[in-house]
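tool=predict chain=A
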Amino acid sequence: MGAIVSTNVRLGAQVHLNPGVIIGHDARLADFVSVNPGAVISGEVLIEEDVLVGASATILQNLTVGAGAVIGAGAVVTRDVPAGAVVKGVPGRWQ
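tool=predict ok
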């Protein structure tokens, strides 16, 4: 309820979009992705399987988030995220 999904978006199996989520054009979300309330995924983003996107996080356009990554609440992702990384902060950083 309340999610906005733009044009040409592809969602994998068991993708969970919470209220207030915005998914931009041509985005691809693989299987078992969970997007928490208020998150924004910009256009042409690829989110690989088993990713958690935290509440109010933003992923900028044309980026890839690797499998098993966690995007923390409120993080702003400005570059590709490797598989298994935990991203937090503005701009988003991982260890």
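The mean pLDDT is 96. DSSP finds no helices and 15 strands in the chain.
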